[in-house]
Predict the 3D structure of the following.
Amino acid sequence: MLRHTMLFLGYELRATLRNPVWPLFGLMQPVLYLILFAPLVANTNAGGTMGDTLRMFTPGVMMMIALFGSLFVGFGMINEIRNGYLERLAVSAVWRPAIVLGRTLRDMIVLVVQALLVIALATLMGMRASLPGLALMLVLMAATGLLASGLSYGMALALRDENGMSQIMQFFALPLIMLTGIMLPMSLAPDWMRAVAQFNPLYHAVEAGRALFDGDFSDGSIPLAFGLILALSAISLRWSVASMRRIAG
């Protein structure tokens, strides 16, 4: 079980290292937000410093990487289903969950590397954050990536159609992002938006990230975010693994 998962993880990591262009392109958008958008927000924060703004803004950027870096990984799997590659793997002697687990672990490792680069850039721009808080935020971000990649692989295996999957992803991605407070704190939003945001697990993850960066470990959003994200990650991973088992019949 573990050996098969590590074999698939090694294969996926080597494939990523042979073609690192896409992870780098995935990193460019959050970096541009950090460079171009954070100074705009800083100018609206009367009396606040650039460091304060980055401590508020960077957790949101990390969640953006976790969501968009993992939500679309299933598209490659659809092509593998169509050309029969995944079906041949599924009927082989390999432990079937390892096919999904190896890819998911690869996605989480790529996300953490991207997040470390974003944190390094934000630190160079003046951000100062709690080190234990940064470590916990990386764990929360990796769990969010697990949730998004599990959903993406599960949807790819269920739909097996790029067009349908793309429409569903775009339908949910915009409200999820707008109701997280990634760009601006939800305290600036009207009451109805703040009420709806309470049902968005990513909103709690961003709020927890801001508390962690501030070193406020007593904030109630932290256990709430970890509980929600870990539970939903387990459900999405179970769904994708079950979908993979069904391919073999």
About this structure: The chain has a mean pLDDT of 86.
